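Illustration 12: Isocitrate dehydrogenase.
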Amino acid sequence: MTRRTITVMRGDGIGPSIVDATIQVLDRAGCDFDYEYVEAGLGALESSGSLLPDETLEAIERNRIALKGPLMTPVGRGFSSINVNLRQHFQLYANVRPVLSFKGSKARYENIDIITVRENTEGMYSGQGQVVSDDDKIAQALSVITRDGAERILKFAFELAKRERRHKVTVVHKANILKSTSGLFLKVAREVASRYPDIETVEMIVDNACMQLVMNPEQFDVIVTTNLFGDILSDLCAGLVGGLGMAPGANIGEDCAIFEAVHGSAPDIAGKNLANPTSVILAACQMLDYLGMDDKSARIREALRDVIASGDRTTRDLGGHHGTTDFTEALLERL
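Figure caption equivalent — predicted structure in token form:
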């Protein structure tokens, strides 16, 4: 059988250390991958003059699956977001952000199990119509929602709920004010929901959804929404389970997918062996699920759950006093 090759972008800041830890975990779990390492972010800019070199895009195109550490886009120098470019280039229309409570994680809630499905290529992140007047007094941007784009992400969310045996999908919108864009999204949501009578559908205005997530998050199962709202809500959900260090992300298209840490590159602790690699490890578990290797992902998640619950060599954000390598070693021992 041909071995699967994974494109790996180690990233900036703490990225290399947490990605390397994740590769060790995948190997110890017996995943039997080959890895093609490519550059992106500040490291790529320094070595090639580009944040996202053609060689990197070609490797992702060739292997159709990638694991990515956090990348840094320079602020205020005319560079566009690397993540947005990747999503649009490969039409990775679905951003999937699961959050799950881990006993011992010091999170505020103990029974959280929510998946946020965010449309990844349209809305306010489409990049269309961004204009600033010459006198810097007026700025504007265009939000674009298409019927095809809305139907595609909504169908993805309901199919995910069906496949994962979830019972409820909450459609988050702002159709009461944004009657054109959110209005179209909500209209299409109702059409798609009618095809899934066995799944409960709830409609919720985005500001109310934020309040409900803080007050009673256990009511949520799968959330589906547009790009900007999804960006905000998925980070809010991460806060329910201990922060972005506990939250993975997947960017999925028709025949290509990129799995990533959703937190930043944390340059202040880069090279200090302090970072928690959980986000990338859980992203790798998403990748294994995507590849049909559910047994491997289940083993890794169970080992991770045991390390965090026991407090064995956990990192500072988990209440421990250890670093990346100790935490990784505790996980490898369990595998």
